[in-house]
Amino acid sequence: MSGPSSAQRLVLWVLGWIERYRYIKFGIVGASGTVVNLVMLHVGHEYLFNALEASYKKPYLSLALAITLATLNNFTWNRLWTWSDRVRTLEADEGVQPVSLRLLGMEFGQYVTASAFGSTLQYVLTLLLSGSMDYRLANVVAILAASVSNFLANDRWTFKRHKE
């Protein structure tokens, strides 16, 4: 039996490189959250809340729903992948087997609080920009603007490094 092919070695190297660089992982998770956000924004604005939002021409309720579901998506994947090493350390320090609802609730509360500035920035920017461009494009621009503050807040507070 032969070893891995050069393509397989390249894929493994790329995956290892991504694993070492937390901001790239955060970006990949953020991309998945952007998909959730855009799909829910479109579904909400065009179908769920169409009658309510048609008179305003702005996606108020759809945007709130989209941000909420994307935040839940991003918290889940950031906890399981981006900061999994720190979560395991915290759980070990607390003597938790395998997950504590108290710890999970505390982390989610911190994540939402840490992301609140970015979520507010995203909401306001999307509404402001949607007057001059398609609301979906406005939402993508707003997400990009908010992503840096979300990363820094969650890296330094929600999933902060714990002293050895």
Summarize the structure in short.
The protein is mainly α. 81% of the residues lie in helices and 0% in strands. The chain has one domain (20-158).
Instruction: Report, as a whole number of angstroms, the end-to-end distance.
Output: 43 Å
Which range does the strand content fall in?
Answer: under 5%
Q: How would you characterize the largest beta sheet?
A: none
Instruction: Give the SSE string.
Output: HHHHHHH
Quickly count the domains: 1
Number of strands: 0
**What is the helix content?**
over 70%
> What form results from the Cα inertia axes?
globular
How would you classify the helix and strand content by structural class? Answer: mainly alpha
Radius of gyration using CA atoms only: 19 Å
Per DSSP, the total helix count is 7
Uncertain residue segments:
none
Chain-averaged pLDDT: 86
Your description of this structure?
This protein has 164 residues and is mostly helical. It has one domain. The chain contains 7 helices and no strands. It has helices spanning 6-20, 22-48, 50-53, 60-82, 84-94, 101-129, 135-158. It is globular and about 60 Å long. The mean pLDDT is 86.
Tell me the layout of helices and strands.
Blueprint: H1 6-20, H2 22-48, H3 50-53, H4 60-82, H5 84-94, H6 101-129, H7 135-158
Descriptive labels:
single chain; mainly alpha; 7 helices; globular; 164 residues
